[in-house]
Specification:
Layout (H helix, E strand, L loop, with lengths): L8 E6 L2 H9 L8 E4 L7 E4 L1 H4 L9 H7 L4 E3 L3 H16 L5 E5 L2 E5 L10 H16 L3 E6 L2 H8 L7 E3 L5 H7 L10 H9 L5 H5 L3 H8 L3 H7 L16 E12 L2 H21 L2 E12 L4 E8 L6 H12 L9 E13 L10 E3 L2
Parallel strand pairs: 2-4, 7-8
Antiparallel strand pairs: 1-6, 1-7, 2-3, 5-6, 9-12, 10-11, 10-12, 11-13
Helix pairs in contact: 4-5, 4-12, 10-11, 12-13
């Protein structure tokens, strides 16, 4: 909510995106437990179908563990170029409804539809229309959350998955948040959730009932976010990257990452998402910046620059690997990874790969 204007925010999240694309393209995989990722002993699951999730298989899990949990699990290699192409189709649909689009990854985004461009009458109707068009164009299902701010819209999109829609109006926002387990809050990973549990905080209501002084004592600067979130308050606008001086992506993980294999798989996912955004913007950048946050919320950034713009997703990933290598291992594990392109050049220029790296200023 801003001033007297109540925002109308939609969070759209594709259902088991990578796995669903694979099941769409290969009918023999439909209805079967599927993992996208490497099947070797040192492989990592990049994504899992809903049939696999029933067995406890999840993203960033070592493939050996996934196979023990589900002996019938099928593995397919990731096709990031295909996922990026489908993502472009989805974002083209979004752009028909609003210019205020904030992508979070290849398969999810916030949309501010306060202005009803097509006169559909409500944010719920817009979300329903978007979901129907995604299904018609891509053959895939999407879930959506509709609310008055980003925090609740994201929670709502997960409420009725898969292929679901959840609307949380302002009058029900605080009660909705209070009813949820805190482990579902964006930014509350397993380590923080476990700490909250030890403090007797299991639900949004429990968190809401703790004084801000208590939260500051136990969570430091993170307390302000928790205090507001527990009350359904989030004033952040949907930020379009249309005129950004940088283009990137970051991902917070459900559980902290420790092994080199799962960290590399996560870095590849982030690189693919960031590169897809750069492609949509017809932009290239000369500087790659790595963002890494550990289990104690300590954040570091490292950067490298090229003489000319980064030429490909593979080159961006290679630079990311160079940047992260000196930081490993990370005590307590990694809870967030991000890669960003800056020094942006617009338009499709002829770019030569393999140029030497120089230190960023």
């Amino acid at each position: 909510m801003t001033g007297d204007v109540i925002r109308k925010i939609i969070h759209v999240d594709m259902d088991a995106f990578y796995a669903s694309v694979e099941q769409r393209d290969d009918p023999s995989l439909r209805g079967r437990p599927l993992a996208v990722g490497g099947s070797s002993l040192r492989g990592v699951v990049a994504a899992a179908s809903y049939e696999a999730r029933v067995f406890g298989v999840r993203s960033a899990m070592p493939s050996s563990v996934a196979r023990r949990r589900c002996p019938e699990l099928l593995f397919v290699k990731p096709r990031f170029e295909v996922y990026a192409a489908v993502s472009r189709q989805i974002h083209a649909i979004f752009a028909d409804y609003t210019a205020a689009i904030e992508p979070l990854s290849l398969d999810e985004a916030y949309l501010d539809v306060t202005i009803d461009r097509h006169g559909l009458g409500s944010a719920k109707a817009i979300a329903e229309d978007i979901r129907a068009r995604i299904k018609a164009v891509t053959g895939l299902t999407a879930s959506a959350g509709v609310s008055y701010n980003k925090f609740i819209a994201k929670l709502a999109s997960d409420q009725n998955k898969p292929d679901g829609l959840c609307v949380v109006p302002p009058s029900k926002g605080a009660a909705f948040v209070a009813s949820l387990p805190v482990k579902r809050f964006h930014g509350v990973g397993p380590v923080t959730a476990a700490k909250m549990s030890r403090l007797g905080i299991e639900t949004g209501a429990d968190l809401r009932d703790r004084p801000i002084e208590f939260l500051r004592a136990h969570f430091g600067s993170y307390a302000e976010y928790l205090h507001r979130a527990a009350r359904g308050i989030d004033d952040r606008p949907v930020r379009s990257s249309r005129a950004s001086k940088s283009i990137g992506a970051e991902r917070t993980f459900e559980r902290n990452l420790f092994t080199p294999e799962e960290i590399d798989a996560a870095l590849a996912h982030v690189a693919a998402t960031a590169w897809a955004r750069a492609e949509r913007k017809q932009a290239r950048g000369r500087t790659v910046t790595l963002k890494l946050r550990d289990s104690s919320f300590h954040t570091i950034t490292r950067a490298r620059s090229l003489a000319d713009p980064v030429a490909s997703e593979a080159e961006m990933l290679a630079i990311g690997r160079l940047l992260i290598a000196p930081e490993l291992p990370v005590a307590g594990g990694i809870r967030l990874l991000g890669l960003t392109l800056s020094g942006i050049v617009r338009g499709h220029e002829e770019v030569q790969p393999g140029l030497p790296l120089v230190a960023a200023e």
